[in-house]
Amino acid sequence: MSTLLSLGHGYSARALARLLLPQGWTIHATTRTADKAEVLRGEGVVPHVFPGSDLTDALDAATHVLVSAGPDADGDPMLRELRSEIAARAGQFAWVGYLSTTGVYGDHEGGWVDEATPLTPSTRRGKWRVAAEAEWGDIPGLPLHIFRLAGIYGPGRGPFAKVRAGTARRIVKPGQVFSRIHVEDIAQVLAASIARPNPGAVYNLCDDDPAPPQDVIAHAADLLGLPLPPEESFETAEMTPMARSFYAESKRVRNDRIKDELGVRLIYPTYRDGLAALMKTGED
Predict the structure, then answer these.
(1) In a domain, 145, yes or no
(2) Would you say 99 and 12 are in contact if contact means Cβ atoms under 8 Å apart?
(3) How many domains, the chain?
(4) Average pLDDT, stretch 24-29?
(5) Domain with 65 in it: what CATH number?
(6) Strand pairing of 64-67 and 180-182?
(7) Rounded Cα distance, 93 and 65, in Å
(8) What is d(CA 238, CA 252) in angstroms, rounded to the nearest whole number?
(9) Is 86 a member of any domain?
(10) 95 forms bridges with which residues in the sheet?
(11) Closest to 96 in 3D by CA, of 125, 135, 48, 55
(12) Domain ranges, residue 55
């Protein structure tokens, strides 16, 4: 019997759970609040409010571990609490997956990066991720797999609601491109890696079509039959520091390794495929 311990059971981890539960997996998952724990229980997951609850039994039962919790200035929050417990069980696990970000590569002025590209993050969050990857990699004997995710979208995280509400913005910064990945493709890549573990492997998770952000908004408006939001110059647009920081880096991310090593065929190879599916299901 396979048992997954999901540390920080968020959007991507829940998509993986929807694949594994019908296969007979048991899934233990941490969440921060009792309300979210009840939601997870309704999805067939064994929830643990954490910090605050003892994870010894869940750790003892786990054959696989997925880490989705993001780091902060003080490092990885799960290792702060559980480093010794995880290290003591390193040989017990068949697979450990850490969800990182393509932000670790930094800015490449629209150029291509792959898993061998040096890690040169320019943002605070990217630097935290590089440090967290290293923290997990320092645990002896841990069968670690690192997944660097591009911008995530999917049901409940599409652009349509903002376009309908008239709040979507087409902010244009010349040369700016982002890579993206549909949450269902994240789940299928993780499942493929679990089926074919390769400790030490690093995988970029993104689709085949890096594109300027304003093009995605324009396509969403076109699908809805609504007017295009006006273009705004990045230089003069009013934005929060957090929103502006996303434009600090521009790169195109290669995904050959998930195809060549894991045999993955993307469900949504472009944002156009993904947005069309969200429109069809009404889960935008």
Answers:
(1) yes
(2) yes
(3) 1
(4) 98
(5) 3.40.50.720
(6) unpaired
(7) 7
(8) 26
(9) yes
(10) 64
(11) 135
(12) 3-153+181-206+253-268
- Tens of pLDDT, residue by residue over 224-233, are 999 999 999 9
Has residue 92 been placed in a domain?
yes
Q: Which long-range contacts (CB under 8 A, 24 or more apart) does 217-220 make?
A: 217/159, 217/163, 217/168, 217/169, 217/170, 218/170, 219/271, 219/272, 219/275, 220/158, 220/159, 220/160, 220/163, 220/168, 220/275
Q: Tell me, what DSSP letter sits at residue 143? A: -
| Span between the terminal Cα atoms of the chain, in Å | 35
237-244 contacts, C-beta under 8 A, 24 or more apart: 237/169, 237/171, 239/171
User: What's the full length of the chain, in residues?
Assistant: 284
Question: Over 80: is that where the pLDDT of 282 sits?
Answer: no
- Average pLDDT on 13-42 reads 97
Token pair listed for 236: 């003069």
Q: Please indicate, yes or no, if residue 174 is contained in any of the structural domains.
A: no
Strand pairing class (46-49; 112-113): unpaired
pLDDT grade for 242, boundaries at 50, 70 and 90: confident
Q: Look at residue 168 in the predicted model and tell me its pLDDT.
A: 93
CA angle 230, 236, 237 (to 5 degrees): 55
Question: Average pLDDT for residues 82-108, to the nearest whole number?
Answer: 97
